[in-house]
Write a structure and sequence with these properties.
Blueprint (H helix, E strand, L loop, with lengths): L5 H9 L14 E4 L15 E4 L6 H14 L4 E6 L6 E6 L11 H28 L2 H9 L5 H14 L4 H7 L5 H18 L1 E3 L6 E3 L16
Antiparallel strand pairs: 1-2, 2-3, 3-4, 5-6
Helix pairs in contact: 3-4, 3-5, 4-5, 5-7
The protein binds zinc ion (2 copies).
One zinc ion binds next to loops.
Length: about 220
């Protein structure tokens, strides 16, 4: 089981609608977790979080009084959400500017723009590969973690369309935390096998004929397996 890269995580999050703060209904802002780990050493368990930065938010507005009365702290809390979940919690802040340094909506916009351009570029390279049946370049795009997920999924689909049996090994070795991509890779392997009337031996993983009764590599009985 591999872990989704930060980039893959970000792409997945950006594709989903932004959550609203349950306390004030305002749209929350994407926030990059600072590299400092918190005292428990666990950080936030996510590279990005959504925070409510509305200064009129009742949770935050009330927080100043509550924390002063209960803990004699000059601090308040802002509502936080774990992207992609319905989990909302409170994050302590020590000034109205607290945590604002990491608001990354603008940076995100720039990244989004770059992502779009890179996706466009990736698709045009892939279109060329399709014409030239250039599987090597397709595999390169597919396995490059810096390529946008959409480009990589497209590359996987193309491998399914005209990849050779030799490509199966490379596809099998790819492990990604992104479910859509993993699914595209599995489907590509299935399509390649379908085109060549092959499958993998359940015992030794070598490629054998779909109808084989004995594996020619490990000599084991594979009929109906
Ligand atoms: Zn709020
Ligand atoms: Zn075998």
């Amino acid at each position: 089981m591999s872990i989704e890269t930060k980039q893959e995580f970000l792409e997945r999050i950006l594709a989903m609608p932004k959550p609203s703060c349950p306390h004030c209904n305002k749209t929350m802002q994407l926030w990059e977790v600072p590299p400092v780990t918190f005292s428990d050493g666990l950080g936030w368990g996510s590279p990005y979080l959504y925070l409510c930065f509305n200064d009129e938010c009742p949770l935050y507005d009330q927080g100043w009084n509550d924390l002063k009365e209960n803990y004699a702290q000059n601090a308040s809390v802002r509502c936080l959400n774990y992207p992609g979940t319905d989990q909302f919690e409170c994050m302590p802040v020590f000034s109205s500017q607290g945590a604002k340094g990491q608001i990354i909506d603008e940076q995100i916009m720039a990244e989004e723009k770059m992502l779009k351009e890179q996706t466009k570029k990736g698709f045009s390279i892939l279109a060329n590969c399709y014409v030239e049946k250039d599987t090597l370049t397709i595999i390169r795009l597919l396995t490059d973690p810096c390529e946008p997920v959409r480009v990589r999924i497209k590359a996987a689909e193309m491998m399914g369309d005209f990849g050779e049996l030799e490509s199966i090994e490379a596809l099998r070795c790819m492990k990604t935390g992104n479910q859509a991509m993993q699914k595209a890779i599995e489907e590509a392997i299935t399509s390649i096998h379908d085109r060549f009337f092959t499958r993998e031996c359940p015992f030794c993983a070598e490629i054998i004929k779909k109808r084989a009764e004995i594996c020619k590599h490990c000599s084991r009985e594979v009929a109906g397996k």
